[in-house]
Design a protein that fits this description.
oxidoreductase, 3-oxoacyl-[acyl-carrier-protein] reductase FabG, Rossmann fold, alpha/beta, KR_dom, seven-stranded parallel sheet
Length: 243
Amino acid sequence: MLLQNKICFITGAGKGIGRATLERFVEEGAQLIYANDIEESSLDSYCSEHVQVVPLYFDVSDTAQVKQAFLKIKKESGRLDVLVNNAGMMQDALIGTISRSLMERLFAVNVFGTMELLQLASKLMMTQKSGSIINLSSVVGITGNPGQLVYSATKGAIISLTKTAAKELAPKGIRVNAIAPGMIDTDMMRSIGEKHLQTHLDHIPLGRLGEPREIADACVFLASNMSSYITGHIVSVDASVLV
C-alpha cells in the first residue's frame, strides 16, 4: 500500500507503460487515479472494474483540454499528489527526410504537453507544499539513435526540463524526476519490425526486452514516500550497456 491516500494522474494510460503504471498504482492502494488517454473508451472496461480510476479522454497537446482536466481534479479532489507524464509518440525519420510537421507534432505531444501538465500540476501541489512529478524520457534521450533525430531530441528535452523543474520546485516541496526506459516490450517498440528489434536485442546482455511493469515499478518508487529524498534525477531502467 505504498500509494495509500494519494491522488494520482497518469497520462497515456490506455496501453503499454501507462497501463502497467495504472495497474501498479491500483495495486499499491492509490486513493484515486485520474487516467488519461487519447483514445475514447480505451479505459472504460478497466474503470468499470476499479471504481477508484476516473477516465479522462483528451490529447495532451491540446491546451484547453489539459486545463479542463485539472479544473476537474481541483473541483473533485482539491489536491494532486502524483503526476506521471507518460503520454508520448514515436515516429522515426532519417536526416534529410524529416518534415516540419513531424517535428512540430512530436514536440507538441512529447515536450509541450509535458511542460503544460507539469505547470498545472505544480500549481495544485504548491498549495499543499508536496507532490511528485514523474516524466517519461527514454534511453535515446541520453545516447541518441540513428533514425530518431526528432524523437531523441524530444526525450533529451524531457531530461533538461526535469532537472530545471526539480531545482525550481524543490523549495515548494515538490519533487521532479524522470525515468529513461531502455528497450521495453510495447506496441510502440514492436512497430520498428523484427529485424531492427533483433539488432537491438543483440546489444542487451540480459537477452530480453524490458517489461512495461518494470517501468511501472520505478514509477511506484518515485511516486511513493520511499523516494522522499530524491529529486532532479534521471532513473535509467535499462539493461543495455550505455556506451
